[in-house]
User: Which sequence fits this backbone?
């Protein structure tokens, strides 16, 4: 790229190429002063020395012409003398030299003779090469005489040279005076103000906008300085505005940050509140079941890692239900809050007190072994001894505490909770009010745990059996359904009745696969009977743990679909006490089952103390009066009265009634009189293997069933 002096733009941040650097080094290029000086010298030289030089050159050229003419003339004289005789030539040459201006003469004759004459003596050859002389050469006639001579112009130029020197001297003197003067003027007028402006620009570049440039003139530089100062004022204003805007921006930013921080803090608080609500019991503010499970899980992990013990206390209040029933829920709630306070005041910071639900509390003691846990349990019971003062009313309560320790009573949160639960149940009958879970004392528990793994295996191998006990209607004598009852033909122990393993299956969680197996088998059985022309409905017994199983409802739906059953062909029996263990949960499950169209029956009714108001809200189709009331009816007037009132109650609620455990005709007749709808019992039929069911149904239909014949003969 070609760059002119003014076009020398060096890109920012890039090094100056060495060539350019050298050029920058030339003073006259970098400075206006240098250039001005050069210009002034050039102009002065041209103006002062030029004409004198021209004049002198002109004089020199004139003298040269004159001397050349004179030389030619003298050469002709010499040539003529040479063609004469030598005697004539010599004096002629002397005369020529005597002229004063002739410096040398050479005559070359036709025969080659050479005659030289030099003024003042010396060498002709040297003179012939002297540039100052005017050299004339002439040949006269071909092959005849050649004359060379040199003429000295100095005498004729002496005056012109002296004049020229004088003029040079004059020019030198004039320049010596004029140049400093001009430079001084130029410096004051141009360079100094320019320097001031440059310094001003540099100050601005450094950010100093406060010092104006002082050039008080009216010319261009003065105007430039004024424009510069105005520009600085504007820049200052812009800078001030910018500073102000920046300050405002900073202030805004601070404000915004403060608001964001405030918003974040509020969100965090809200989050904490929500988290707290999700993990804490609304009534007492204690950790709820979810948080307790979490903490238990943590405690188990830590105890495993550090090979430590820890214990849990599960506590419930004795007869809390009475408080609720007699004083109302508000007072029950107040009592729970007070109990929670006393518990919290008692335990250490590292311990967790939580509410599992209802009147059940759990305490996790992270570093306590069984012994330590017993001490804490005693302290808790002591702390609960003084009566509670609820707005002036004194209320005394007692509690039962079950203790389970890791790892001896359970290796996981769920087994620990189960063990503590079992122990708490035992504590209800213990004088001290607390009990440690006991593995061995729980009637051959090891044995029973072994039994459970065998039960699991039996379920897996499809080795259980179902028998079906008919339910018949008292009016119209028809089989209205069957109840599926499980039997376990054990290879060593023989047939094990359900009462001996259902409870344990519930405690160990095996009841879930068991119920699943029963539902599946029943579904298949109904399907097979249908193939034989027998269409009937079957009741399946559910345990309380099935109500807590999220998969139950889905599984029921699956069975209905797989075996193409009408939902009414399936009845689910839930005992009254199972419902009352967690009425809210039970109601939720029952509502969903009812929505599917499945029939619902409350089993063992009369033993669970459910309230009428509660019953009204349950979507059940059938009440099944517990056999303990039914069997003694003929001899026990109270039982008969209870059965009577249950029948009335059920009918008032629009629910059908079935009596179980009907062992003889007398009871059956009594039930008929009391308006009972259906009966089930040995008198009608013992539980039947599936193969015997079609024949029994046939017998009832044809009136030849034993119980019908017995009634006919009575
Ligand atoms: P439950 O549901 O009340 O069943 C009725 C029980 O009474 C059955 O006993 C039945 O054989 C018996 N029974 C029927 N008629 C009479 C009678 O006239 N007199 C007497 N004394 N007893 C009679 P089982 O089969 O031994 O069942 C006992 C309990 O085991 C059942 O009581 C039920 O709660 C439970 N159970 C049976 N099968 C299952 C099952 O598959 N799942 C669940 N969760 N529990 C079951
Ligand atoms: Mg039943
Ligand atoms: Mg029953």
Assistant:
């Amino acid at each position: 790229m070609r760059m002119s002096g003014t076009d020398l733009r060096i890109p920012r941040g890039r090094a100056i190429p060495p060539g350019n650097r050298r050029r920058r080094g030339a003073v006259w290029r970098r400075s206006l002063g240098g250039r001005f000086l050069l210009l002034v010298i050039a102009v002065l030289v041209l103006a002062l020395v030029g004409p004198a030089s021209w004049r002198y050159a002109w004089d020199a050229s004139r003298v040269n012409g004159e001397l050349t003419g004179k030389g030619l003339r003298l050469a002709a004289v010499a040539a003529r003398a040479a063609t004469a005789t030598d005697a004539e030539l010599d004096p002629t040459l002397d005369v020529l030299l005597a002229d004063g201006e002739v410096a040398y003469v050479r005559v070359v004759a036709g025969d080659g003779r050479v005659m030289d004459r030099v003024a003042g003596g010396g060498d002709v050859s040297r003179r012939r090469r002297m540039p100052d002389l005017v050299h004339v050469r002439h040949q006269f006639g071909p092959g005849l005489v050649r004359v060379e001579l040199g003429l000295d112009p100095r005498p004729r130029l002496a005056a012109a040279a002296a004049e020229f020197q004088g003029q040079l001297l004059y020019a030198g003197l004039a320049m010596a005076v004029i140049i400093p003067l001009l430079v001084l003027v130029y410096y004051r007028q141009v360079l100094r103000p320019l320097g001031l402006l440059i310094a001003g620009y540099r100050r601005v570049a450094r950010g100093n906008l406060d010092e104006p440039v002082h050039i008080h003139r009216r010319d261009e530089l003065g105007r430039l300085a004024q424009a510069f100062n105005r520009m600085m004022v504007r820049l200052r204003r812009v800078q001030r505005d910018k500073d102000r805007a920046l300050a405002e921006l900073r202030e805004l930013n601070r404000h915004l940050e403060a608001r964001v921080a405030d918003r974040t803090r509020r969100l965090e608080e809200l989050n904490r509140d929500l988290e707290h609500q999700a993990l804490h019991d609304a009534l007492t503010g204690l950790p709820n079941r979810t948080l307790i499970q979490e903490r238990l899980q943590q405690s188990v992990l830590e105890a495993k890692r550090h090979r430590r013990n820890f214990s849990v206390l599960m506590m419930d209040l004795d007869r809390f239900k009475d408080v609720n029933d007699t004083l109302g829920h508000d007072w029950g709630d107040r009592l729970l809050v007070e109990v929670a306070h006393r518990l919290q005041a008692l335990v250490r910071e590292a311990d967790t007190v939580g509410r599992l639900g209802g009147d059940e509390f759990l305490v996790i003691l992270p570093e306590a072994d069984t012994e330590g846990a017993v001490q804490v349990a005693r302290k808790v019971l002591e702390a609960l001894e003084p009566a509670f003062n609820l707005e002036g009313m004194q209320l005394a309560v007692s509690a039962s505490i079950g203790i389970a320790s890791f790892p001896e009573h359970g290796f996981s949160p769920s087994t620990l909770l189960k063990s503590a639960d079992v122990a708490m149940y035992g504590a209800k009958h213990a004088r001290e009010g607390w009990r440690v879970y006991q593995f061995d004392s729980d009637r051959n528990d090891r044995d029973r745990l072994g039994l459970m793994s065998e039960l699991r295996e039996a379920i897996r191998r499809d080795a259980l059996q179902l028998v079906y006990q008919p339910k018949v209607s008292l009016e119209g004598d028809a089989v209205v359904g069957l109840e599926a009852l499980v039997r376990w033909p054990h290879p060593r122990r023989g047939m094990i009745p359900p009462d001996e393993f259902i409870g344990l299956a519930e405690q160990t969680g095996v009841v879930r696969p068991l119920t699943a197996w029963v539902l599946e088998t029943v579904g298949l059985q109904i399907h097979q009977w249908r193939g034989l022309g027998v269409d009937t409905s079957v009741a399946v017994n559910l345990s309380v743990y099935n109500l807590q199983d999220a998969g139950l409802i889905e599984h029921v739906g699956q069975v209905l679909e797989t075996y193409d059953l009408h939902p009414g062909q399936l009845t689910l029996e839930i005992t009254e006490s199972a419902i009352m263990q967690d009425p809210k949960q039970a109601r939720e499950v029952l509502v969903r089952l009812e929505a599917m169209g499945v029939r619902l029956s409350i089993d063992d009714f009369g033993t669970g103390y459910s309230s009428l108001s509660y019953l009204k809200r349950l979507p059940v189709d059938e009440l099944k009066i517990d056999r303990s009331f039914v069997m003694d009816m003929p001899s026990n007037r109270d039982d008969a009265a209870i059965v009577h009132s249950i029948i009335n109650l059920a009918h008032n609620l629009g629910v059908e009634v079935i009596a179980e455990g009907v062992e003889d005709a007398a009871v059956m007749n009594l039930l008929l009189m009391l308006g009972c709808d259906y009966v089930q019992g040995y008198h009608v039929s013992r539980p039947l293997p599936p193969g015997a069911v079609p024949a029994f149904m046939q017998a009832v239909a044809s009136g030849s069933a034993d119980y019908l014949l017995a009634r006919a003969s009575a």
